[in-house]
Design a protein that fits this description.
It is a single chain. The protein is an alpha/beta fold. It folds into two domains: 245 residues, 3-Layer(aba) Sandwich (Rossmann fold), CATH 3.40.50.300; 61 residues, Rec A Protein, domain 2 (2-Layer Sandwich). 33% of the residues lie in helices and 23% in strands. It is built from 13 helices and 16 strands. A nine-stranded mixed beta sheet has the order 5-4-6-7-3-10-11-12-13, with helices on both faces. The protein has a three-stranded antiparallel beta sheet with strand order 14-15-16. Strands 1-2 form a two-stranded antiparallel sheet. Helix 11 crosses helix 12. The longest helix has 14 residues. The termini are far apart.
Length: 342
């Protein structure tokens, strides 16, 4: 008589050498770390996943490191630990503190070689660090390129450029690193953009295609517009985050646009206002905006209304399914109503 499916499963699960588990095992479950930015948390289905790899990529100066810092901040807020591997030597205590990161309780490393960077990342994961940020993949240089034979001249050393050295390094290193994610860490790798050579100029990332296959979350970040004061002074930009790939939920191939201010990060109040417009909760006729029978002229006027009327903003947050703890930010916003986008 042929064994039933349950008999076969029970027999194989009993073989410890195979390390098999049921698909419903809690070992496959994972949590997400929120960005704390409503539109991005909806886009990603709750934030950055633990036990998985996320890549944030895009052109320079579009807010990639800022987004990673928000993940670190929220891990710390939950009592966890964050690690930051700075291959670009760009760590700035003051800027990170301004982003909300507790710089006294984040572990920062500035490795010389790619092997050192991955070794540190592995050790942080094994220690149970909540999130490990690699900034960036483009800064990973294997030791055989970074430390050539001492007999070489300066011309030979700096001219040493074997074909696809970084892509080969990433392709062989990531499979050795990713199994350590089972310890529970979220791995966030930042990468830059390059323009490929050829008849058609295509944007690509340093490190080859392998990284995109290994990643569970692929988030593209770019600037799509400017934020200006009434005097046309640029104070920030509209940041578009597009979910290019997901194996862990979220709204695949969709995007979210959030207002990013250089001196203040993501403008949460304006982000909710935009969501309210998109959902039809806020009515717009010409230059006038109406919410709950309260009228204001222009986005500047609407934001002033929200900042000065905490109950009104709390109602909007509630209708959009947000956390009313967001209204705590109104106290700071009241001191900064002069620099509003138009």
């Amino acid at each position: 008589m042929k064994n039933s499916a349950e008999d076969v499963i029970s027999q194989l699960l009993g073989d410890k050498d195979l390390e098999l588990r049921r698909g419903s095992s809690s070992e496959f479950e994972y949590e997400k770390i929120p960005f704390g930015i409503p539109a991005l948390d909806r886009l990603t289905g709750g934030g950055i996943p633990k036990k998985r790899m996320t890549i944030l990529y895009g052109p320079n100066n579009v807010g990639k490191s800022y987004l990673a810092s928000q993940v670190c901040k929220n891990v710390q807020a939950e009592g966890g630990t964050a690690g930051w591997i700075d291959t670009e030597l760009s760590w700035d205590n003051e800027w990170m503190a301004k982003c909300g990161v507790d710089t006294d309780n984040i572990l920062v490393a500035q490795p010389t070689t790619g092997e050192q960077a991955f070794g540190i990342a592995r050790r942080l994961m094994q220690a149970g660090v909540g999130v490990v940020v690699l900034d960036s993949i483009a800064g990973l240089v294997p030791s055989d390129v970074m430390e050539p034979a001492k007999t070489k001249t300066a011309e030979e050393e700096f001219g040493y450029n074997p074909m696809a050295w970084q892509a080969r390094f990433i392709n062989t290193s990531l499979p050795r690193l990713l199994p350590n994610l089972q310890e529970g860490s979220a791995f966030v790798a930042i990468n830059q953009m390059r323009t490929g050579l050829g008849k058609v100029a295509l944007d690509t990332m340093p490190g080859g295609l392998a990284q995109t296959f290994f990643a569970h979350f692929l988030l593209q970040v770019r600037r799509v517009g400017w934020l200006e004061t009434s005097d046309k002074e640029k104070i920030g930009f509209d940041m578009e985050v597009r979910l290019r790939k997901t194996k862990v939920g979220g709204e695949n191939w969709k995007s979210a646009i959030v207002p990013f201010k250089v001196d203040g990060g993501i403008d949460i109040i304006e982000s909710y206002m935009r969501d309210g417009l998109a959902e039809g909760l806020i009515d717009k006729k010409g230059a006038w905006y109406t919410y709950k029978e309260q009228r204001a002229q222009g986005m500047n006027g609407l934001k002033t209304l929200m900042v000065t009327n905490e109950h009104l903003f709390a109602t909007l947050v509630s209708e959009l399914g947000g956390n009313n703890a967001v209204t705590e930010g109104l106290h700071e916003a009241r001191e900064d109503t002069s620099e509003l986008s138009v």
